[in-house]
Amino acid sequence: MIDLLQYEFMRRALIAAVLVGLITPVIGTYLVQRRLALLGDGIGHVALTGVALGLLTGTSPLLTAAVVSMFGAILIEVVRVRTRTSGDVALALLFYGGIAGGVLLIGLTPGASNATLTGFLFGSVSTVSEEDLWIVALLALGVAAVVAVFGRELFVLCQDEEVARAHGLPVRFLSVLLAVTAALTVVIAMRVVGLLMVSALMIVPVVAAQQLTRSFRVTMSLAVVIGLLSSLGGLSTAFYVDLAPGATIVLLALAVFVVAVGVGGALRRASGHRAASTRPPVVTTAAGTMPESDPGRVSR
Amino acid sequence: MTIIFVFVIMGTVYAQIRDESVPPAFQALDARVSYDGVPVLDGVSVAIPAGETVAVLGPNGSGKSTLMRAMLGIMPLASGEIRVHGTPLSRFRDWRRIGYVPQRLTAGGAVPATVREIVASGQVAARRRLSLPTRADRAAVDEALATVGLTDLARASVRELSGGQQQRVLIARALAGRPDTFVMDEPMAGVDHENQRALARTITRLRDRGSTVVLVLHELGPLEDVIERSVVLESGRIVHDGAPPAPTGECARPGHEHQHPHPDPNDPDPRAAEPPSPADLMRLEVPGRD
């Protein structure tokens, strides 16, 4: 681990990996909850247009990607609400538009080709500059602030949009806020795992965590731990074995998922056996207003 | 002088009894809602005074759920007006007074959540952003869980519960914000017979506390004694408003326990438990439950 830190580029890469591992699963938890697991993918494709725009105009691709993907995120929400298209169709439309826009713009850029995009599509964490790192850190701070301030409302929104409305919550604002936050997260993770695999880091740690948990808060915390382990583990493995870092990170997260499925299944079977042998046949409650009537047990 | 004083006192008492000073909890004025040009609510005007327990009845597609959803702003009006506690819906801000129980088969989202987490989320309108739960907040959650008898399952994952238990989670969520105005969309759906009666007791208690309770129901069932007024809709119009309609035919038979089973794959058919008393009747364990 020490020799890893000897290199300036590796120090920057590790910091970026920590930020990505921390932030992506948090937003991913809300997206999975809202059944919009592919939102990150849709935004990732749109971000490609932003990257190409940055290269074409000579500004930081990270900044242009952030701006364009935020517009894309707002567009997805508008398309979803206004045209009564289902979420996945709205996403599909953006997938194609984003990729086509990116390829078109990169073709117009002198001295750049589709190969230039490869670094953004599949990640190039070792080329993270100091400026990139500052942008990533700032975006991560913004995402964390949104979750801290609006987390409770986002939970209700993602749980049940109709209930959120009946609570008087600003449903449209919160939907756009979540989409924009997801867009910023995509840009944060873009340099580390690449636009095509960004969504994996948002979703896979969450899906792995929920094999083992029963509460929302614990799921989110465990997802962050899994995200951190995958991004740091994947990056250092890639450094020593000379593998593609983005792909290594994602495959590591998927491996954790497979293990979690196995462990979760075993735990449930074990607790099922225990419950069957020790649980009293009737669940009596202290309050007694809705007692002793759970159907499907021997209740008399 | 004394006489005037007595009149003033009487007037005050009278106003309080009649609740004339208090605006209705909900008021619909010629409310119209349509889906794709097809009217679902066709000019409904109704006022629900604060403190009343009202059932909104009607066949499927009569617009009863739509009326409730329009009253909460979930469904936009094509024309007409909704007032909530005297304020036009668009300017209504006192959402902590409203407790809504949606019609759902499950209470959970795609990510696991504990019963307590879901119930506590019912306080979202009553709490400030960035605030930690106070002792009073936690006590309200405890009380809501106790009211529906889920205290022991507070730490369980919602998705592990039966349909009837999940319905109770949704009711507890509405209770947790300590609102005084409840809207419940078919709270009896998927709830077995005994829990329906327990729910009726809960609603009785809410009524005694002075809460307004609006229930969308298929039929009154065990709530018959709690309901003060029935509004019956048919094809988007009110066809009856007043005392609950008298049961007719088979339902009028003395001792008839009317219930409309909403099949829940996890619960045994409630009709199977119908002959209510025989103590020797044993309900068998359904494999794979819990």
Q: Can you put this structure into words, describing what you see?
A:
The complex is a heterodimer of chains A (300) and B (290). Chain A contains twelve helices and no strands. Chain A has helices at 2-5, 8-33, 39-57, 61-82, 87-108, 114-122, 130-159, 161-166, 171-193, 198-209, 216-241, 245-278. In chain A, helix 10 packs across helix 11 and helix 11 (216-241) packs antiparallel against helix 12. Chain A is globular. Chain A starts with a helix and ends in a 22-residue tail after the last helix. Chain B is 26% helix and 21% strand. Chain B has helices at residues 2-18, 64-71, 115-120, 135-147, 163-176, 193-208, and strands at residues 26-35, 38-48, 53-57, 79-84, 87-88, 98-101, 181-185, 212-216, 229-234, 237-242. In chain B, a hairpin with a 2-residue loop joins strand 9 and strand 10 (237-242). The longest helix of chain B is centred in the N-terminal third of the chain and has 17 residues, at 2-18. At the A-B interface, helix 2, helix 7, helix 8 and helix 11 of A face helix 4, helix 5 and helix 6 of B.
Q: Rg of chain B to the nearest angstrom? A: 21 Å
The count of strands of chain B amounts to: 10
- The helix/strand series of chain B, from N terminus to C terminus, equals HEEEHEEEHHHEHEEE
Q: For this entry, what is the oligomeric state of its chains?
A: heterodimer
Please tally the β strands of chain A and state the result: 0
Work out the helicity level of chain A: over 70%
> Could you estimate the helical fraction of the residues of chain B in percent?
25-40%
Give a short account of the largest sheet of chain B: 6 strands, mixed
Which shape of chain B, going by the Cα principal axes? globular
